[in-house]
């Protein structure tokens, strides 16, 4: 059985399903000493395993963007991330699959739960429904990340039939999946979001340590991002405002920031909605510096984010992302309130409601600039032209959400501009790599090893 699956199935979750890891107790078959989940609590534990397995795909693909550079002469970083940084999966690198296989492992867990949880015993219907609802959301989010890395930006009615990552919604270890179309993938994602919202009863994960779990507010935040990425502006604005108007969350005010306060990316922050992903983990954090494009975007004197989000590293001769924003487990962040203000600003702009777009921007700026200059900065925003307002919205996303796994996807939505990366082998030896405007490499190819094991991905 093991050999047959290993030879015929390209997804890693097939191996996990038969006991690839000794720490997995919940399996779709029952070897001696292991458990098939039957009780509601066991399905919850299986979902916890799915959450814990969620990979750092957004953080890895950010290395391909213009917000960070590999450190000069960092041989480990060059080895691990060269293929991502050079937009060439044949260049080698330890992180060549961008979390593709672990993501499908998470989807496998989700599919197993959804196929079997209705038969769960020893749990209330509310507990079962909450677990099932979260599972729909986690499956949707996994497919969403895969599609936006390995497929193009979805534009409904325009590129419906372009291919993207496989859509896997059943536990079937004997099938080598084909690529999905963008329409089929995105139809499934929004269907899962809607199913999950109908089942869940938890508005907010009040215990900060449980904020890795989806809630209704996290579902609304996800919905806002989904509609933003697909250009459905009115729906994006509506979903974003549901979170913005929720008194359970508030923007962190840097002007009154004290020693006991935590940055917005901290899982205990008043902005934290879902804290699932460690987007700039310690390994990435150690290998990169902030790009000049990012550091130059800040008003270094009046924008307090500069000193809180970036720290100068004399050894690296550049600005590092602050360890108090990213890197450590307490700074896992998937959705937070600032993103929703920026989503609302962008959506309102595209709906030609420029006053509303400016209002959302000013609400964020008010919490980020020094008290002496914030009113002047808000006046600047009030006087922006339509073209300059659009630029300001994207620049605010660039600064506010830096190192949180957004930039690559924002660049795809901004028209896929050209990017130049310099690989500094040593202080004397450098090589230039260019991603051209509208380059086909903005759609990451499926990992070589995966394609070799599943030729269907060539179709």
TrEMBL record:
Residue stretches making up the RagB/SusD domain: 312-458
Keywords associated with the record: Cell outer membrane, Membrane, Signal
SUPFAM superfamilies: TPR-like
Protein name per Swiss-Prot or TrEMBL: RagB/SusD family nutrient uptake outer membrane protein
Xref: InterPro entries: SusD-like_N, SusD_RagB_dom, TPR-like_helical_dom_sf
Family affiliation: Belongs to the SusD family.
Top-rank lineage group of the source organism: Bacteria
Organism name: Paralabilibaculum antarcticum
Localization: Cell outer membrane
TM spans (from-to): none
CDD domains: SusD
Start and end residues of each SusD-like N-terminal domain: 25-228
